[in-house]
Amino acid sequence: MAASVAGCFFFFFFFAVVLATASSGGSAALVEHTFIVSQMKLNHLCNDTLVTVVNGQLPGPAIEVTEGDSLVVHVVNKSPHGVTIHWHGVKQQLNCWADGAGMITQCPIQPNKNFTYRFDVAGQEGTLWWHAHVTSLRVTVHGALIIRPRSGPDSYPFPKPDKEIPIVIGVTEDNYVLEVELGKTYLLRIVNAALHPQYYFKIAGHTFTVVAVDANYVKPYMTDTIVIAAGETVDVLVVAAAAPTGGRYYMVALGIMSLGPLTKTPVFISRGVMSYTANASGKGTSDDTGPIMVPEMPDYRDETMSFYFHGNLTSLRPVPVPGNIDERLLIAVDTGRLCRQGSVPSPPAYCMVTRMNNISFQLPTTTSLLQAYYKKDITMITSLRDFPSRPPPRIVFNRGYTSRGVSVWRVRYNTTVEVVLQGPPTPASYSNPMHLHGHDFFILAQGLGRYNAEKDVYAYNLVDPPVRNMALVPMYGWTVIRFVTTNPGVWFLHCHLAQHVSSGMAMAFVVENGPTTDTTLPPPPADYPSCDDPDDKVGYE
User: Fold this and answer.
1) Burial call 379-399: b when 16+ CB within 10 Å, e when fewer
2) Where is the Plastocyanin-like domain (predicted)?
């Protein structure tokens, strides 16, 4: 279960806890939690490190709700850092104030201060998650968010599992053992909370049936390898169907090493063990003295399997794809050079940054984007830039100088937007898991090379495209998404790799109010964190 770095063993594994599949149903409930954000010592890379956690847990508490419930989370910040909590994948309809994106929708909750997030979890079922959205605190401030159907587990559109097990990749854990019984079915709710890589996930001697991604059901897809990028969630069924003689089976999560940009990350290999216990008939016990079966893993440098895994997903309950496109964006996501002194110097007086359409995103410094927009004074934001609908002509990927700015795309309510996300179609390429706050979207197509509007439109899946909140832009290629702006507010679009978003691979959609009260963003909550205090402007992720 370990990868060796500089002679020291460390564990970059998953946390799991068994959840009972109890019946749901009944009227909507108010689910209330208190998050105490503080610091604790963690032995990491053979050294004691002070880390920020929630409720003294790593990962933080798993939240369980039923579709239609209202969730109230009191955040008490006893850490030395400003913090926000983002409810990753929750649509926050008419409630952008609770999205939790630092300096985008709110100022951070300062040390020794509190803030209460209040929102409804409506129209969504499956696995989502929550995490800090300030600097790199996400590495230890995160947890699962499980949304069960209102009618109970018997209404799952797949065989009812005997047990549910959330698995959060990106947490230190040593010698984890998952005990299973022969013949039983397990629903693994997998979250990739890691800051950097995609992961291949396999269990020796077992296959998976993928049933949902990003809290949206997909047509059952059988595979022996799960591919999950940073920020994504995947729900899979696995049947404990190994030989009755018993045995033990490694569960392996292997980090995929992309080629760039900026710096390379170490290869993370994590291992746990699936072990059989006796079932009701006394059969199936593992032999703890025997060898542990090891799965054959893909090459950690090869993203081919990732491309096909994501391309094979289709919606189980397809809804009509909007056909009349009002706004089209072609967004190039790559790297560029940023002058340190504001003028083109001779090397090395520049730094490498990430960018979208040749603008490297920077945070507002005096107030959150949402607050400025709500006060009808968004122009007060220093370095505000209109996000261009296309990259500059004759752009050269990963080369040339760029500029910084708070880049926003303003769009009317109920607008159909199609976005082509183009990664570097060059040898020095890399994949980018892009996350849109406040909306789900259709993933219509993906491909390799440069996007060709005349040719590639014929590859669109307009029948049963998957619906997601994450879109993986493949290495050397592109991805097309489409969505309708039915949620007024300010919504962040960014790469979910920590190094990419912190260096500028982001922009924001400003969605205007609709014509009625029911399509207008309400006022902020009374305890909305203020930026009046200069200390309330702590970075973001």
Assistant:
1) eebeeebebbeebeeebebbe
2) 38-151, 171-254, 400-514
Q: Which helix (H) or strand (E) holds 511?
A: strand 506-511
- What confidence score (pLDDT) does residue 302 get? 87
Residue in 451, 504, 509, 454 with CA at minimum distance from that of residue 480: 451
Residue 383's identity, in one-letter code, is S
Domains and CATH numbers, the chain: 29-156 (2.60.40.420), 158-279+291-315 (2.60.40.420), 327-519 (2.60.40.420)
C-beta of residue 70 within 8 angstroms of C-beta of residue 31: yes
- CB 256 within 8 Å of CB 200: yes
Q: Among all chains, which residue has been given the structure tokens 């900026």?
A: 262
Q: What is the largest CA-CA distance in the chain?
A: 76
Q: Which residues contact 151 (CB under 8 A, 6 or more apart)?
A: 24, 25
- Spatial separation of the C-alpha atoms in residues 103 and 47, rounded to whole Å: 33
3 state SS of 505: coil
The percent of the chain in helix, strand and coil, each rounded to the nearest 5, is 10, 45, 50
CA-CA-CA-CA dihedral for 343, 346, 351, 356, to nearest 10: 60
Residues 173 and 55: their CA atoms lie apart, in Å, by: 17
pTM of model > 0.85: yes
Q: Do residues 161 and 181 touch, judged by C-beta distance below 8 A?
A: no
Give the CA distances from residue 108 to residues 64, 86, 122, 426, 541, in Å, rounded to whole numbers and listed in that order: 25, 11, 26, 38, 11
Residues of the chain with pLDDT under 50: 1-14, 20-23, 262-263, 343, 345, 535-541
Provide the token pair at 218.
């997909």
45/113 Cα distance (integer angstroms): 32
Contact present, 234 and 228 (Cβ < 8 Å): yes
DSSP state of 33: E
Alpha carbon separation from 294 to 204, 338, 356 (Å, rounded): 5, 46, 41
CA dihedral 42→56→540→525, nearest 10 degrees, is 180
DSSP summary character for residue 159 = P
Asked if 505 and 356 count as a contact pair (C-beta separation under 8 A), the reply is yes
Give the single-character DSSP code of 265.
Answer: P
